[in-house]
Each structure stands twice: as structure tokens, then as C-alpha cells.
Amino acid sequence: MKVIKTIMIVDDDPDIIFTVQEGFKDLETDFNILSAKSGKECIKLLKNNEIPDVILLDIMMPDMSGWETYDKINENQSWKNIPVVFLTARNDRIAKNAGEFLGEDYIEKPFEIENLKERIDIVINKN
Length: 127
Description:
Elements: E1 5-10, H1 14-26, E2 31-36, H2 39-47, E3 54-57, H3 66-75, E4 84-88, H4 93-102, E5 105-108, H5 113-126
Parallel strand pairs: 1-2, 1-3, 3-4, 4-5
Helix pairs in contact: 2-3
């Protein structure tokens, strides 16, 4: 029996959430997709015990940035081992270096859905 893994995508752009959800359906993946339109919504889902196998986290979001969301996740003993993959339009060296250091991976938008799936598989299989 296949174990279905859960991915939480946190992005204020509904098109990105839709692209990942539909792209993974088209690839016929065994992923359950949770979505949060903000860092605050991400934290709320985690508090409600919606614990994913990996979090795809945008950096540039209003109210609570991806960096702030990452910090909140890491402050909680129950969540700090959830792998975080930064999925962002930021492609400057500082963000990339910080994202690669803090997260399991750093993926720039736009992305190819097949490449995103491969990289998520690597992160999930590593943990």
C-alpha cells in the first residue's frame, strides 16, 4: 500500500497554489496538497494539527514574510523538523544563500512542475 505524503504550499499568489495542485494531479502523484494563502494561515493549520511532510514556502508575502513564517515554524518543537523548501521569485544571492542554508531546498519561480516534484521527492526521501 502506498503512503500518501502531504505537501503544504504557502503562497499569497492563488495562481501558484493552483499550478502546484493541478500540476501534481496531471503528474498523478500520490501527494495530498494543503494550501495556505499566508504565513498566518500556515501557522493556524499547523496549530490545528495539519502537519505536512514538507512545506513549500514563498518568501515575499504580506503581513508575515516567508522568513518570519520559517522562524515561527522553528520555534515550535512539534514543527521544527518539518522540511521547508523555499519556493520564491526572489533570485538575489542573499535570499538564495539564506534559503539554501535554512531550508532543505530553494526553488525559483517560474518552475517546471516535473522538476518541483523531483526535488520534493528528494527532500521527502531524505527525511
